[in-house]
Structure formats: C-alpha cells, structure tokens
Amino acid sequence: MGMDTRSTCPYCGVGCGVIIESDGVQITGVRGDPEHPANYGRLCSKGQTLHLSASPVVLQTRRLLQPGLRLERGAERQPASWEQVNRHVAESLARVHAQHGPEAIGFYISGQLLSEDYQAFNKVARGLIGSNNIDSNSRLCMSSAVVGYKQSLGSDAPPTCYEDLDHADCVFITGANPAWAHPILFRRLEAAKAAKPTMKIIVVDPRRTETAEFADLHLQIRPGSDVALCLGLLHSMIWDDLLDASFIAAHTQGFDDLKALAREMTPREAARICGVSEADIRLAARWFAQSPATLSLYCQGLNQSSSGTAKNTALINLHLACGQIGRPGAGPFSLTGQPNAMGGREVGGMASLLPGHRDPANPAHRAEVAALWGVDSLPSEPGKTAIELFEAAARGEIKALWIACTNPAQSLPDQALVRRALERCELVILQECFADTATAAFADVLLPASTWGEKEGTVTNSERRISRVRAALAPPGEARADWRIVRDVARLLAPLLGRPASPLLDFDSSEALWLEHRAATRGRDLDIGGLSYQLLDQHGPQQWPFPEGAHSGLKRLYEGGRFATENGRAQFVPKPYQAPAEAASPKFPLLLNTTRLRDQWHGMSRTGVISRLFGHAAVPRLQMHPQDMARRGLAEGAMATVSSARGQITLPVQSDLALALGQVDLPMHWGQEFVSGCDAQGQVMNGVNALTQPAFCPDSKQPELKLSAIDVQAVKLPWRLSASIWLAAAEAARVGRALRALMAELDYAHCVPVAASGIGAAAGLEGWSFEGASQGPLPRDLLARFALTLDLRGSQVLHYADAQRGRSRSLRLSDSGPDARVLALLRVGPAGEGEWLQALWRDGRAVAPLGRRLLAPDAQFEAAADAAAQARSPQLCNCFDVSQQRIELQLKQCSGSPAERLKSLQSALQCGTQCGSCLPSLRRLVDVIPAAPSTSFQETVAS
Question: Can you tell me whether residue 210 is helix, strand or coil?
C-alpha cells in the first residue's frame, strides 16, 4: 500500500513543499504539496524528478553505502566498518590537534545540511575542538546578502515574503534570473503580473535572459557596474524630488554622506559606466520611487562579487531613500540559492557567525553560547572563511579538513589551488551521499550520509519560513544521518582531547538538536521560542520570528519603522563604485559570466544522475556574441580554448545574441565529472571553475565567481570520437564511470547520461553519450578500451575501419531483422563525418532501410542518411518531452493573440501545463514564430 510523506525540496531556497510517495521499500514518486505556502503544489522540472534521484538503481549504483578508508596517501580506499573509521578519524584529529593546535583543523559544510546537522557540526568544531575554522558553501552563495542586511538594517533578516509579489506595483530584479534559477517564484510573479497588468517589471542583467524578456524595462548593464547604477538611480531620485523625506528623517541615519556620494554619479555618468541609456536610468528611478510598492529580487549577480556587500547595500539604500520597505509589496528580497542556507545562518554554521545571529568577535556572545552548550568558553581566534580555508590548506596550515555535503573540487573558484589544498592536507574527510563526486577522489575517509527522503529535521527558506523535512524511508546500506556521524566521532574524540563529552554531546535525535537551536534564539531577532516539531507538524511551515506565546510568525519585518540596529534606525551605507577585481586586458580581452541552466542545480551531484534533466542542455557550450566568434575565426560548434590567469578548458562555442560584445557565458554546473580533457601541458582540465577567480568581497569574503577575465582562441581538434550506448539501467552507472575515466585521454571530452524514449524507455534502458576531440588520430589501444567498455563484440556488431585515414565505425545492433536498432556506437574520424549516426542511435530508429550506408564514410551517403535520421531538436518541455522543433511547427498553425496562440499550443502539445519551467521559452517562441494567417468570414464562405 502506498504511503505519502510531507517533506521539503532539497534544491533552491524557494523551499517548496513536496509529498514523497513510497511503498515502504522505495520512493516511487513525488508531487508538490498543495498546502505548502511556498509553492501551493507547484514544482519545477528539478523538483518533479526528485524521486528519480532515489530510484533503486541510483541507490545501488550511485550512492555511497559503506564507509571507506585509506591509511596511506596514494593507496586505494578500502571498505571499513563505522567503528573502524570513527576510531581512525578521532585519533587522527586528536594527533593533529596535539601537534599543530585546533586552528589546524577545518570544517567545510553545506547549505544543503539541515539546521540540526549544522548545530552538531558547530558544537563539535567550536565547543569540542576549539576551532572557529568552520565555514559553509553558503559563503559562495549568500554571504554578501547577509552582511548587506546587517550593515543596512541591523540583522540578517530578509524583511519581505513571497506574498509581497502579489502586492507589488513595481518589481526590480537585479543580478538574478528567476525564470530559470527560481522557477516556482517566477510562476508567482507571472500570475501577479497577469492579475495586475499595470505592474512594472525592471530587470538589470548583462544578458538578455528569459526573465529580462518578461520585463517592461531591461537595463543590460556591463558586468559588475551595479553600484554605479544604484548611485545613478539615487541621483535621479534626488534631482526629481522622488524621495520619502519624512521616512528618511524618522527612521534612518547617514543619508547626508550617501547624498554627497551620489552627487558625483549623475545619470549620465552612470549610463557611461553601465553601458545603458540615461533615459532608461531616469525611467527606472521614477518607477522604483513612485510606485505605491516596490519589491526588489536579487541573487548571485549582486552576491558573487568583489563588491558584493556594496552592491547589496546600494540596493537597500534605494528602498530606504524611497520608504519602500516595511509594508506589503515593498522591500529588498534576497533570493537564496540553497535549501537551508538561511537555516545555516541562523544556527551560526559559518566562520563569521554564531548561533542566534550572534557574532564570534563579541566576547559576550561567545560567553552566551558557551553557557548554552555547557562548555567553559569558545575560541576567540577569527575563523577562516571558505576561500581562506583552502588557501591555508594549500600553504600547509590546515592539516585536517572535514567536508560535508558539498563538492569543493567542482564548486570553488581557482580549482588548481583547491586541488593543491586537498592534496597537501594530511587528512581529508568527506561526508557525502553520492559516491562519485570530484572531491571523493581526494578523500582519505568517506562517510556515507543520508539524504533527501531519508532525513528528519528542518530547513528555512528565503522568506524566513521554517519547514519540516521528513524521512519516507530509512537510509540505504550503512548511510547515517549527518548529525549522528559527526556526533559519534566527537564522542570518541572528546576523551582523546581530555575534554568531557557531556553535556556538549548528549543529543540523541534531530529534535534534541533543534531544541538546542531554539534555545539559542530566545530573546533574539529570530526568536522561535514558540515553535516546536509538534506545532510545525500540526500547523505547517512557519515564519520567524515566532516567540513564545505568539500565534503566528511575522510575514514582513520593520512595518513599524523600527529596525534591528541599536537605535532602531536603518543605516545608509555610502560605498563608492569600484570596478571588478579583473578587467578585460589585451591578454584576457573577454569577460566570463558563470550562469545557471534551467534543469540543473549546482554541481549536478543529484541532478546529474537523472538523464531526463539533460534533455534541455546536454552539451557544455561557451556562449559568445557572433561578432566575437567571427573575430576569432570561430564557427558555430567549433572548438575553442578558454583560458584565464588560473587555468584553461576546451569547449565548443555557440553564438548568442543575448550577450553584449566582449562578454561570454558559461553555465557553472559543468565540472570535471562531465567535461574534461588534457591541456597542452598534459594537465587534466578541471571544469568551469578552473577559470574563475578567488578574489572576494572584503566585508563578506564571498568570491567573485560571476566575473573573470578570459581569452578565447580557436583550437584545431580535427579528430572526433563519439561513443554511445543503451543498456539496462542497473549497468548504466558502471559503464558511465568507465567512459568518464577515459575523458582525460583526449584533448576535449564530455560525457552525459541520456534518457531513452519510445522502445528504449519501455525496455527500461539508460543511455550514455561521450563526445571527444583530439589534435591527431587516436591510438589503437584507446579505441580498444572504448570498444571494450561499449561491449562492441559478437555477431550483432558491424565494423568499418580505414587505418590509413584513421577512420572507423563500430555499431552493435539489437538484432539482425527489420526492427534492428543501434544499441552501441563508436565513431572515429574527422569532425562532422557520420554525425547523423548519433541521432540514429539516440532516437532508436530502425536501421534496416539504411543498409550498407551505416558503415559507408563517403559524402554521397551522408546526405541520404541524414534525411533518415535528423539531429534531435533541443527539448524545451521536460515534463512531456516536447522538442523545440515540434513547438515551432505547432506554433505556425496557431493564430490569434499571443495569449491565444500560447493556449492553443498548450492544448495541442501539453507543454508548459505541468511544472511551467518552459513557459518563458514558450512565450519567447510565440513572439518570434509567425502566426498562422487568419481566415476572414468571407474567405471561409468562399471556400
């Protein structure tokens, strides 16, 4: 009998409620929770496929199910018992502690952990080991927003809520692309705009994104010029007398200094710096200031910057100057990137924070937390933040590094430095649920952790709403809850350090940890003294503050005009515009922006096991303006070497008119697990973040991942290899790992899973597609390894080889009859030759009509075969597997207004009717695909 379990999505910070469907043995499905106030039943393409990341095949082949241990660097890890690894970790940490002190031990944890997990790690790092070197990957995501809120409003507390989208008259979106990164929130914005057509939407973004296409005004600024734009907007507001002088006088301080700074940044000067028109700046200023309620939405474009905090406070300055805060529909609203980045901030799971929004530099705050935890004191030495932590490890100062639920060998900037750090550490502990992340290769100890669908606890979303996370099933294999893993090691470590384990480590459940966290919030701005697991279970997710005696949390903060500063006044922060840390130069003349794909999330540790999610974007491509491509002699799909001061990567290029000249775009998801190869020096390429820079904001310590100076040069890689296979799902992970192990043998390679369709899907097949490129003919032994991996043996295998010209084709067919299809394919030869075979394999088409053309390399057969197996169009609708080509063909038959054409399209193909993630793309196509000619009444009668 099926069971339903209410829980929360583990992806972005929107915090959607999900209902997990299970049968007591496995998770069988997922659907949106109609009662959860974050999503009211909606889920994006990622959320809708969550259950596929917990399928029996994934659990058996991709999950980390048993502890692993190596006693010597360079040796193979061996399976071990929990007792063995716990003892080894405790003794190793005790040795480092004795020889080098507590500062030689670091923890790098994650915004995907539950608040209870954060509490356990924090207590062990600070309360037991005595090190403030505990930081989270939220440092890469939200730390600039944290410091911005604190400097301006006195507390790390977003003052708004999702309901404000329904009340706003102007929505100012800057440094964010919610159409792809926060789709469910964007659905709500679309509905609000439809209900209130007079709503003005302003989008500030260097790219013409689908969010920007939805806007009434798009300010396509130069990357990194956000502070100049905000100062120019403020100057215009002052000049046109658009400020709320009474609000400034009654509720703020420091405006005169800001006004003096803005005086020099005229709209004309801001337009020059930003690369937009002065008229558009003045129009945006009027809309922002004069609208009855203005809400701003912002994310990594502001946060991931060497001026991240300045960008945040510059935007908040505008809200304060216009009184656009503390009432329905108005205020600055930072969009959170991870499911519990907010909860981690509340629990103090970062080097710059303590529980309950306390400050580790404040002796009184340290004493309060020490008393709550039952320890004598907390360390006073400032902790190292994420970049500082790995820089210290690379210098040999951090000797032991415990990493939990994150993949720094993919996600951190300057991967060359990160890998030096991991190699130099004496002890690398990785606590993880998936077995094959890039970081796992560096781990001396692997600790199998539970994950979504198996965990109990809480998370907090972008609007300060605490939701319960519930387990539908027990963890597989020997996996354990994150909090339990760290506690069990700590209980062995405590006597080795000569410290009592009690009461610090007395917790035996997630709820016990949550009650400790709740106690730390009492009397603070985030007081949740009135909440409990029982209340959350009975009444659903709740916003903080929710003090004892309250009947509900606060939807929005500062409605009375009193802020969280000592005197209750908000602070204007006058920070001048500063150029990004790297600028275009003759050596690196282009600016790289790292962005997000619609159907992928972060480093793809989870989404990367779901083949369906690669339908929209299956190939890593560098997006460039066509003119920039032409200047470098790059045609569509050509290979190019992309280099920065830190490293390089080889990629195919794709033209994109949504980009300005001199700017390029590369999705941040493509790590070494999916795209690699060897550079000219024989070094393995480490994915996108081989290029990005570790320079960080001086206040927030958040790195400038969004902008790096690069060069792009055409590279001649005339030899291509394609390796593709359909096979039983139970074998797919093994073959995928074997193919990925071959990526470094070529100058360029990418390897991704492919979802089967038609007969293949019905048969339960999974696919892998490998594409590689090389400067010269490929060695025979390498081709033999590919053939072995693809099982290209037996009577059903067709071979063609031209050793003199270095060309070959091998195809394994399903049978020899008229219904035979390609199951496996290995194609080697010049670029472009035989590419149609890839489409033939992918679409599962019958090969009998092609006969000997399957093996013929001659161009005369290429055209005929291409007509029989055209390249597959990109998938736009993930839910119903609808391609762009089908949508374009259908739209040509649709007539009427844009809304009528969209409705007709959806009725015919169902695209955009379920999760809605493809709706922005559908609207764009409605605008660009010509409508069917309408037929007049007279013409109808005549016909």
Answer: helix
Separation between Cα atoms, residue 490 and residue 512, nearest integer Å? 17
Q: Report which residue type is found at 410.
A: Q
Cβ-in-10-Å burial (0-12, 13-18, 19+) of 788 comes to exposed
E-only strand ranges, 668-764: 675-676, 708-714, 719-728, 748-755
pLDDT > 90 fraction of the chain, expressed in percent and rounded: 85
Per-residue pLDDT tens digits for 548-584: 999 999 999 999 999 999 999 999 999 999 999 999 9
Report the DSSP pairing between strands 17-22 and 27-32.
Answer: antiparallel
Lowest average pLDDT, out of 153-162, 474-483, 859-868, goes to 859-868
pLDDT at 11 over 90: yes
Question: CB atoms < 10 A from the CB of 367, how many?
Answer: 13
Q: How far is CA 345 from CA 143, 354, 377, in A?
A: 9, 8, 21
d(CA 605, CA 405): 10
Q: What is the pLDDT of residues 508-563, one digit of tens each?
A: 999 999 999 999 999 999 999 999 999 999 999 999 999 999 999 999 999 999 99
In sequence order, the 6+-apart residues with CB closer than 8 A to the CB of 532 are: 518
More confident residue, 868 or 16: 16
Q: The tokens 């539970």 sit on which residue? A: 450
Measured between alpha carbons, how far is 628 from 907 in angstroms, rounded to an integer? 40
Which tokens in the block code for residue 396? 């040999």
- pLDDT mean over 756-762: 82
The mean per-residue pLDDT over the stretch 624-643 comes to 97
Q: How far apart are CA 110 and CA 344, in angstroms?
A: 8
Residues 843, 868: Cα–Cα separation, whole Å: 11
pLDDT tens string 79-94: 999 999 999 999 999 9
Ramachandran sector of residue 604 (left: φ over 0; alpha: ψ -120 to 50; beta: rest): left
Between the alpha carbon of residue 407 and those of residues 448, 598, 673, the distances in Å are 14, 20, 11
The one-letter amino acid at 409: A
Element (H, E) at 496: helix 482-496
Q: Does the structure show a pLDDT above 80 at 693? A: yes
Cβ-count burial of 651 within 10 angstroms (0-12 exposed, 13-18 middle, 19+ buried)?
Answer: buried
Q: Which two tokens stand for residue 318?
A: 């505008």
Query: Residue 868: which pLDDT band, with cuts at 50, 70 and 90?
Result: very low
Both structure tokens of 308: 């991240």
DSSP state of 339: T
Q: What is the pLDDT of residue 864?
A: 45
Provide the 3-class DSSP secondary structure of residue 58.
helix
Q: What are the φ and ψ backbone dihedral angles of 172, each rounded to 5 degrees?
A: -105, 105
Q: Give the Cα separation of 134 and 403 in Å (integer).
A: 10
Handedness of CA 233, 234, 235, 238 (dihedral sign): positive
Per-residue confidence band for 752, with pLDDT thresholds at 50, 70 and 90: very high
Q: How far is CA 844 from the centre of its chain?
A: 32
Q: Is the pLDDT at 116 greater than 60, yes or no?
A: yes
Q: Give Cβ neighbours of residue 120 (< 8 Å, ≥ 6 apart).
A: 482, 483, 486, 487, 507, 513
> What gap in Å lies between CA 590 and CA 611, rounded to an integer?
33
Maximum C-alpha span of the chain: 98
Q: One-letter amino acid identity for 109?
A: I
pLDDT in tens, 780-791: 999 999 999 999
Residue holding tokens 């939701």?
467
| DSSP one-letter code for 293 | -
Nearest-angstrom CA–CA distance, 42 and 47: 9
Query: Residues with Cβ < 8 Å from 122, sequence gap 6 or more?
Result: 134, 347, 348, 349, 355
- Alpha-carbon span 326 to 336, nearest angstrom: 20
Give the H/E segment covering residue 116: helix 115-122
Beta strand 170-174 pairing with 294-298: parallel
